[in-house]
Write a structure and sequence with these properties.
mainly alpha; Growth Hormone, Chain: A; about 75% helix; about 0% strand; globular
Length: about 450
């Protein structure tokens, strides 16, 4: 028997707790971003791995595990998320063991293994890194659906813009701290400190996420087996051409991301930079994030998330072009600033646009598809980039990434309609009451 939903009570609960939920989730983002600045997959982790090996494929494994872990599991948990009356159980309950615990274990593990063979240290590092990222993927749809549930449609752009702006401020502070740590402390102590800081700050962020006040909303969809659920997904894509074209544009964009994890390592190898100097790129990237967050957040509320994503794709293209023609390390401060702007658009609109393709009942399925299908190609991209870098050199790989990026921008601009203009069927729970990253 289907449980009756009291829409008035849900509306009143969300309205009463909107500011509280906005605050605690902003603090969650602030501490999470601060922690992830010590754990940057674009700069800190490639530099750490480069102390053990110069193999582009080993460095590409960072982005491979990051994307595979975060973006492959969502589709396989979306069925359970759809039918969960409380979504917070995923980022908070499951998240402690699935994502947070390996982050807390990483610093002591590297400390104990610092005198061991390089192969063993790298193996343990990649194991814990993969554990944390696959845990992130398991909880991702639950977190995204929770945010959609507690933040009204017309306020989501500013929510993501403001929270990411605050996260950009703390991330910038963390980037300054990382530069100081890598300059003042020897290897591997500097990286042990960074990993420890990332774990502790992620724990504080988790505490704030646990304070979210979310109303219970029973699902009106009948339970189905996981196999039957997966078999139904091709039909979703056949029926929704606009969403299908959006996914294709994201797939192509994912392949253009093959260059991302190699930018810092290329600058170090090309111009002989120290880790401390290369970590300065993180400051530039955080500055780009901070500069764009508020602008793109309010712009997407007014003009739609598709425009925000087009801007983000464009800045990503410009960064890749500069990487191809760069004549010195100073160019990379501009490149990483532009990368920060691009990441800002993805963080704000990459999730929020998916909310607007469908209604509340089907939202986890759309989120799962939007994470996992492009995620399959994001998994391939860094390994392809590592192979191309080894075979043809970094500049050639950057150039190929640029050409692929042009195609992705064209597909998004010319074949995808702004989903906010689409009239969708009324959801069981009004969509008005309906988290990059990047780590």
């Amino acid at each position: 028997m289907t449980e009756t939903i009291d829409h008035d009570a849900i509306r009143a609960h969300i309205q009463k707790n909107y500011r509280w939920n906005f605050l605690v989730n902003t603090l969650d983002e602030a501490y999470y971003s601060l922690g992830m600045s010590f754990f940057s997959t674009a700069i800190v982790l490639p530099l750490f791995v480069s102390h053990f090996t110069s193999s582009p494929l080993a460095i590409g494994l960072i982005a491979f595990l990051g994307w595979a872990g975060t973006l492959l599991p969502p589709l396989f948990v979306a069925n359970r998320v759809e039918r969960a009356p409380i979504k917070k159980i995923f980022p908070v309950g499951v998240g402690f063991f699935a994502e947070l615990l390996p982050m807390l274990l990483l610093a002591p593990a590297i400390y104990l293994l610092s005198d061991s063979r390089a192969g063993l240290t790298l193996a343990v590092f990649f194991f814990l890194f993969a554990w944390a990222n696959f845990g992130d993927g398991v909880i991702l749809v639950g977190w995204e659906d929770m945010i959609a549930k507690i933040i009204p449609t017309e306020k989501r752009g500013r929510f993501f813009g403001i929270t990411n702006f605050v996260g950009g401020l703390t991330g910038l502070a963390g980037a300054l701290a990382v530069t100081w740590v890598l300059d003042m402390l020897p290897f591997p102590l500097a990286y042990i400190f960074c990993f420890g800081a990332a774990g502790v700050l992620s724990f504080i962020a988790w505490l704030f996420a646990a304070l979210t006040r979310e109303p219970a909303v029973p699902s009106q969809k009948p339970p189905v087996s996981q196999l039957a659920y997966l078999r139904s997904l091709p039909g979703v894509l056949r029926r929704d051409q606009n969403f299908r074209m959006y996914l294709i544009s994201q797939i192509i964009f994912a392949l253009s991301g093959m260059a991302t994890g190699f930018l810092a390592v290329y600058s170090v190898q090309r111009w002989g930079l120290t880790d401390a100097k290369a970590s300065g790129f993180l400051i530039a990237m955080q500055a780009g994030l901070m500069a764009a967050n508020l602008l793109l957040g309010f712009l997407s509320d007014r003009k739609g998330h598709k425009l925000s994503l087009e801007i983000c794709f464009g800045f990503n293209l410009l960064a890749l072009v500069l990487a191809v023609i760069a004549q010195g390390p100073l160019w990379f401060y501009v490149i990483f600033f532009l990368r920060g702007v691009a990441d800002s658009g993805l963080a704000i609109s990459g999730v929020a646009i998916v909310y607007e393709f469908t209604n509340a009942e089907n939202r986890p399925t759309y989120l799962g598809l939007a994470n996992t299908i492009p995620g399959l190609h994001m998994v391939i991209a860094p390994l392809l980039g590592g192979w191309l870098a080894g075979a043809a050199g970094y500049p050639a790989m950057f150039a190929i990434s640029t050409l692929i990026g042009v195609v992705s921008w064209g597909l998004l601009h010319y074949t995808v309609r702004e989903p906010r203009l689409k009239t969708i069927s009324p959801p069981t729970v009004p969509i008005s009451y309906a988290r990059i990253n990047e780590k």
